[in-house]
UniProtKB/TrEMBL annotation:
Keyword Signal listed: no
Coiled-coil stretches noted in the UniProt entry, renumbered to this chain: none
Hemimethylated DNA-binding domain boundaries: 6-99
Protein name: Heat shock protein HspQ
Keyword Lipid biosynthesis on entry: no
The entry's keywords: Stress response
Gene3D superfamilies: Hemimethylated DNA-binding domain (2.30.30.390)
Domain of life: Bacteria
Amino acid sequence: MTQARSAKFSLGQIVRQRDQAFIGVVLDVDPAYDGPLDVLGPLQRDQPFYRVLAAGPDGGFIAYAAEEALEPQPGAGGLGPADEARWFTVDAEGRHAPRDQVLH
């Protein structure tokens, strides 16, 4: 039996990929890998995986990254109010959810 770990990063947090492939904002968190098994490679399945809106030279893209592949972006806070409103809904208790998903 595997035990799910708590997520290290939160919605709206700015992170970077350890190999410096991208910097982006966390949009969603899965408690464990939720994708095709044939592309997982050497990564551990039972760690949080994040959907990150990443900035690239040709615009933005969505990356699906393992927690072990991400780190906080030094000097970056979270999103500003305008960007937060663009990408997330926030309930009365301050919980964030991506705009395309309902809060549980």
